[in-house]
């Protein structure tokens, strides 16, 4: 199991879980706000649509569906 | 940090075609790169980091035997000359020099816009499946699966097996097409057996052909789905909607390979128009896993100079190509879809460009310059397919980087 | 008031060489629908000329599409300053008429001085501008970083020129063309101009566009239409990132450019970065002579980007979405050619703008129109006259 923080809230997540799945399971206000302010969730699940972008460990625009959780990760959504 | 490695055969894509190619290219130094943390591509995508498919595990075992070097989390974004590609990894920039390259970059789902498609909890069909494989818990979730293509049934099957309540599978193709396709399955006994198994497992799930999503509705997230020809909106948690597949030809295109009608041109040995480049699997034509495997094997053998061995596989490939062609005919997109998006429906999700802003342009490039459609990070992967269907626009030329890349890694 | 127009006898096409000629008759045919051609079309149409605009593709498809959209007063020479500052005044007047999608933003330029030598240059530059009524303010190390927090510490300072702007030029070009068409101009797109006669322009489908005057605004392709221009292609690269609002606030250009641009042989890079209204960051710049290949050169890109992040370290972490190249049409003396051809009476040039085409498009259009109407311009036209340039 891995421990991560999503928008400041600690949560425990199974090994091998993607950041996208972790956010969806945490039932939180993920992921990003579109250019005109719409809330967006992932669409393609495979790294091509870029809707799942979140900030991971301070770096913006990371594709959460292509990133596996690691211990201590700081995940921030829009 | 920038690194360089040299290899003889570079295989880009660790799905079915790439793995099959790597397993056959014996006697040469082979490197396989994939953008995911684990091999397997889409159809054999790892579940919580574990590869489940026995076929995939067998092939991966062969890789270890053949001492194939595997680089995961590597996104190839450009070619810097005709023998070198550039990739981005978590450690930084990676330059890979090669003698031959096999592009096995697979396919992505096609998305078509409809009112409400940008609502949270509207996913692709393959998209939702991929998220579940990545750990999304769908236990007891009410799911509508819609769109077109054999993927819908596979997705419904998988979701059900993971505890979801699949309310309906809505396939746009007319029942007559499916019947014709079904009748033709006798030619492909393996496929027929798969279909029978699927039918059995999906026993309780409602299946409707000739119907499609006209709108997804909800305030801040999805609440109901409206299907054509059905009055009552369906209350659900998730909509998994995709319209078959689009080949990922960007790598081949940026390497200078001929791409015609959206497919990479290859000869009988899977060689492209560029002498040292080959291509196998979905980018040469959407055909499913068996075709990808056999094309991968032929490409791997050809890249290693084993043309006689490759030849022996031609007749099997021919069989699988025939199946793929019948698939194509079955799942053609209806003209009615062109009327489904409304003027205020968003078409380009990266830049929030609505349908009404796109009327009157003659090409994707023109629309891009004037409306920003296609200028976002997806580089037209979502809206390109949609606008091609809606307006018959030719896609723009592919320019590197074919994926966004950290400035430092350029 | 000035005359509306001087009417030239409009000749119908009677050239026996054009077998498939359809009578298409204009006072002026403009070859090239880039920003310069579009601006000329708008100005001439405004004055009552009937104008046809010819382009083998569509609006803004050549160097215009690839450009940075920086509107800047440049001081490399008196003539360059005169044209750029005149044009800048015109842009400022024009800005309100443009649609919001043209993203005109008066963000200003900061010329960045890395060391004391460059700071001297900044001071000299300020004197030059000040004596010509362009307001500019010298910044020291601290006020530079106040203005642009993402610049690395240790830079000597810079020069802030508030009057400079940026614009999204594909939209501006389309808007100018729209103005021209609203005054009766016509577009002839999808056909390539292959020759100019005394009657007009011959197209690649063998039709003749009959016109009293022909204006060549074809950028790098102008050489094919008029001999002796000697325009050289100067290749440039640009990189644009994802959205990072407020990462950079002004257009930033290094003063060291002068050192790097003239030092190396035919290849150089310089720090030149622009904020887009979307929050995207546009990064340049590179120059390479005598390359015909439009393909992205990753060696040059790496040089260009590493120079850029040496000024703004955080740039290295941003996500780059697209890279493109363009060819600037460069003349020997770095000044455009604007005006009547020395020998061919019906041919006018509006080309060779190198890296200042966006800025000087509006000024070019006015100078050209003034010459055709036989009236004086707001600035002296002679430095740009084709007479000095054509061999």
Please tell me about this protein's structure.
The complex is a heterotrimer of chains A (78), B (410) and C (391). Chain A has 78 residues and is mainly beta. In chain A, 9% of the residues lie in helices and 33% in strands. Chain A has one helix at residues 19-25; strands at residues 2-6, 9-13, 32-33, 39-40, 53-56, 59-63, 74-76. In chain A, β3 (32-33) and β4 form a beta hairpin. In chain B, strands 4-3-2-8-21 form a five-stranded parallel sheet, covered by helices on one side. Chain B has a five-stranded parallel sheet with strand order 10-17-11-12-13. In chain B, β22 and β23 (353-354) form a beta hairpin. In chain B, 53% of the residues are buried. Chain C contains ten helices and 18 strands. Chain C has helices at 35-46, 63-66, 78-94, 116-130, 141-147, 169-182, 222-225, 257-263, 298-311, 357-373, and strands spanning 25-31, 51-55, 70-71, 109-113, 136-140, 157-161, 165-166, 186-189, 193-196, 200-203, 208-216, 232-243, 251-254, 267-275, 280-289, 319-330, 337-340, 347-351. In chain C, α1 (35-46) packs parallel to α6 (169-182), α1 runs parallel beside α10 (357-373) and α3 packs across α10 (357-373). Chains in contact: A-B, A-C, B-C.
* Physical arrangement of strands within the biggest beta sheet of chain B: 4-3-2-8-21
| Mean pLDDT level of chain C | 92
Unreliable spans of chain B are none
**Beta-strand percentage range of chain B:** 15-25%
Structural class by secondary-structure content of chain B: alpha/beta
Largest sheet: number of strands, sense, barrel closure of chain B: 5 strands, parallel
Shape of chain B: globular
What does the main sheet of chain C amount to?
A: 8 strands, mixed
How many strands in all of chain B? 24
Structural class of chain C: alpha/beta
Query: Low-confidence spans of chain C: pLDDT under 50, at least 5 residues?
Result: 1-23
Radius of gyration of chain B using CA atoms only: 21 Å
The ordered H/E elements of chain C are EHEHEHEHEHEEHEEEEHEEHEEHEEEH
Query: In which range does the helix fraction of chain B lie?
Result: 25-40%
What would you report as the Rg of chain C, rounded to the nearest angstrom? 21 Å
């Amino acid at each position: 199991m891995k421990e991560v923080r999503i928008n400041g809230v600690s949560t425990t997540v199974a090994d091998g879980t993607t950041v996208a799945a972790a956010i969806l399971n945490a039932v939180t206000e993920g992921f990003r706000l579109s250019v005109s302010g719409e809330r967006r969730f992932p669409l393609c699940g495979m790294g091509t649509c870029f809707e799942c972008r979140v900030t991971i460990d301070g770096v913006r625009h990371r594709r959460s569906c292509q990133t596996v959780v690691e211990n201590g990760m700081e995940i921030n959504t829009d | 940090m920038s690194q360089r490695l040299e290899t003889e055969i570079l295989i880009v894509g660790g799905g079915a075609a790439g793995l099959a190619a790597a397993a056959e290219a014996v006697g040469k130094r082979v490197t396989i790169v994939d953008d995911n943390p684990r091999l397997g591509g889409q159809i054999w995508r790892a579940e919580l980091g574990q590869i489940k498919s026995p076929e995939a595990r067998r092939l991966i075992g062969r890789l270890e035997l053949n001492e194939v070097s595997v680089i995961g989390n590597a996104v190839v974004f450009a070619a810097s000359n005709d023998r070198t590609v550039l990739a981005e990894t978590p450690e930084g920039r990676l330059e890979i020099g090669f003698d031959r390259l096999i592009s096995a970059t697979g396919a992505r789902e096609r998305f078509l816009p409809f009112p409400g498609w940008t609502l949270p909890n509207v996913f692709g069909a393959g998209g939702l499946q991929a998220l579940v494989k990545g750990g999304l818990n769908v236990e007891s979730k009410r799911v509508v699966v819609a769109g077109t293509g054999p993927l819908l049934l596979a997705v419904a099957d998988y979701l059900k097996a993971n505890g979801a309540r699949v309310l309906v599978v809505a396939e746009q193709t007319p029942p007559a097409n499916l019947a014709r396709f079904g009748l033709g399955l006798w030619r492909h006994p393996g496929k027929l057996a798969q279909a029978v198994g699927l039918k059995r497992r999906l026993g309780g799930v409602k299946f409707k052909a000739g119907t499609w999503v006209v709108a997804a509705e909800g305030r801040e997230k999805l609440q109901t789905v409206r299907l054509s020809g059905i009055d009552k909106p369906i209350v659900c948690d998730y909509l998994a909607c995709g319209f078959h597949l689009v080949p990922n030809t960007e790598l081949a295109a940026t390497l200078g390979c001929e791409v015609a009608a959206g497919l990479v041109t290859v000869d009988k040995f899977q060689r492209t128009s560029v002498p040292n480049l080959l291509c196998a699997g979905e980018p040469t034509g959407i055909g499913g896993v068996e075709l990808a495997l056999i094309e991968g094997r032929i490409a791997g053998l050809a890249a290693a100079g084993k043309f006689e061995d490759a030849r022996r596989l031609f007749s099997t490939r021919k069989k699988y190509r025939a199946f793929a062609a019948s698939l194509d005919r079955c799942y053609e997109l209806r003209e009615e879809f062109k009327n489904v998006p409304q003027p205020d429906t968003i078409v380009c999700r990266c830049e929030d460009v609505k349908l009404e802003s796109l009327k009157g342009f003659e090409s994707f490039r023109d629309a891009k310059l004037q409306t920003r459609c296609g200028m976002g990070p997806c580089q037209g992967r979502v809206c390109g397919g949609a606008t091609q269907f809606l307006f018959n626009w030719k896609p723009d030329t592919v320019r590197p980087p074919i994926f966004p890349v950290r400035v430092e890694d350029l | 008031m000035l005359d509306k127009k001087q009417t030239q006898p409009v000749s119908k096409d009677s050239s026996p060489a054009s077998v498939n000629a359809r009578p298409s008759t204009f006072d002026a045919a403009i070859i090239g629908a880039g920003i310069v051609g579009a601006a000329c079309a708008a100005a001439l149409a405004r004055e009552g000329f009937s104008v046809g605009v010819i382009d083998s593709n569509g609006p803004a498809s050549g160097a215009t599409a690839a450009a940075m959209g920086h509107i800047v007063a440049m001081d490399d020479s008196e003539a360059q300053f005169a044209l750029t500052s005149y044009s800048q005044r015109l842009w400022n007047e024009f800005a309100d008429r443009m649609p919001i999608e043209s993203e005109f933003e008066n963000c200003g330029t900061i010329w960045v001085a890395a060391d004391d030598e460059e700071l001297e240059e900044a001071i000299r530059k300020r004197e030059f501008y000040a004596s010509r009524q362009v307001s500019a303010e010298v910044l020291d190390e601290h006020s530079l970083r106040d203005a642009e927090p993402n610049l690395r510490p240790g830079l000597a300072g810079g020069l802030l020129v508030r009057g400079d702007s940026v614009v999204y030029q594909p939209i501006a070009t389309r808007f100018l063309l729209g103005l021209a068409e609203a005054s009766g101009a016509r577009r002839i797109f999808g056909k390539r101009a292959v020759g100019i006669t005394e009657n007009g322009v011959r197209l690649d489908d063998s039709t003749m566009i009959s016109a009293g005057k022909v204006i060549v605004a074809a950028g790098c392709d102008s050489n094919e239409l008029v001999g002796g221009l000697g325009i050289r292609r100067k290749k440039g690269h640009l990189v644009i990132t994802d959205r990072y609002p407020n990462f950079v606030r002004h257009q930033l250009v290094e003063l060291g450019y002068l050192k790097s641009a003239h030092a190396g042989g035919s290849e150089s890079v310089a720090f030149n970065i622009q904020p887009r209204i979307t929050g995207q960051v546009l990064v340049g710049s590179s120059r390479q002579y005598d390359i015909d290949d439009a393909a992205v050169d990753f060696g040059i890109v790496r040089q260009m980007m590493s120079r850029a992040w040496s000024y703004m370290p955080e740039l290295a972490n941003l996500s780059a979405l697209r890279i493109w190249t363009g060819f600037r049409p460069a003349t020997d003396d770095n000044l455009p050619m604007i005006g009547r051809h020395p020998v061919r009476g019906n041919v006018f040039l509006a080309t060779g703008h190198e890296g200042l085409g966006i800025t000087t498009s509006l000024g070019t259009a006015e100078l050209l129109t003034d010459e055709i109407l036989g009236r004086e311009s707001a600035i002296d036209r002679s430095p740009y006259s084709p007479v000095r340039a054509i061999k």
